[in-house]
Amino acid sequence: xxxxxxxxxxxxxxxxxxxxxxxxxxxxxxxxxxxxxxxxxxxxxxxxxxxxxxxxxxxxxxxxxxxxxxxxxxxxxxxxxxxxxxxxxxxxxxxxxxxxxxxxxxxxxxxxxxxxxxxxxxxxxxxxxxxxxxxxxxxxxxxxxxxxxxxxxxxxxxxxxxxxxxxxxxxxxxxxxxxxxxxxxxxxxxxxxxxxxxxxxxxxxxxxxxxxxxxxxxxxxxxxxxxxxxxxxxxxxxxxxxxxxxxxxxxxxxxxxxxxxxxxxxxxxxxxxxxxxxxxxxxxxxxxxxxxxxxxxxxxxxxxxxxxxxxxxxxxxxxxxxxxxxxxxxxxxxxxxxxxxxxxxxxxxxxxx
Length: 353
What we know:
single chain; 353 residues; 2 domains; globular; 11 helices; 4-stranded antiparallel beta sheet; alpha+beta
């Protein structure tokens, strides 16, 4: 049997940057995020020759290693190579595997698509290898592979959002990670879905340089630490606003958090991003932010339903395109597929769980 897995990308609402080890290992991190119904997908299938292969639809690359050869670290396709290498080194792929990958969200958009893909690959291979793993174990392994094995200067919130799904408060410390689902009043999640909007800026960015600089400044710059402390405090306020059903207050907190975060690094915002944000505010948005580390990707806004049409028209006139979405409640999931059926992970986008 083949195993198809999918893992959702996420929206970060507050506390971004406090999930970097340079911060949370000393001060403790705290973020509030929500997984959304756009997915990274991986299918693990039996190998016809006991070798290991990976096929990426997004990058249009195909790599293959003969039986008994462990995939080495490197490019291209460094992420699946690293995950496959870990599973092979631990003796979990004795008969090889064929891995197919595809994503609904391209990299560089600030929605955590790379980390969601890491989670999807780990989930697919773990199921394929008959190695049961909890969502926390999947997220931990995926984050360690990206941060330690590949040396990426990223945070850990994306992996936990992808593995667990839903809306969560996530705490980080040197001793571990705790995921706590938000306790929302009836109707709040539906009202939040009605009020949140995503607009593609058409700009992609490599977050590594921003996060690497932030990691360095966190270790020595008092001003950066102070801003991250405030962003963490705002994340607690955001949780309280959401759990209390105060969505106007949530929008105002998004605005405060964005104005604070953009001061951490010069590349987080730009003249164009600032103009788009203020355009949205004038049209009725209460608050928002650029997703992820900043510099490009999607503009996330909280907009009262009465202002959605005006905000959409104003940003469309500036060349930005809205992306429809809803929240994902399930996190990383798998489905068994008949080998040779021609069914891939892409089919899971329709809702198979």
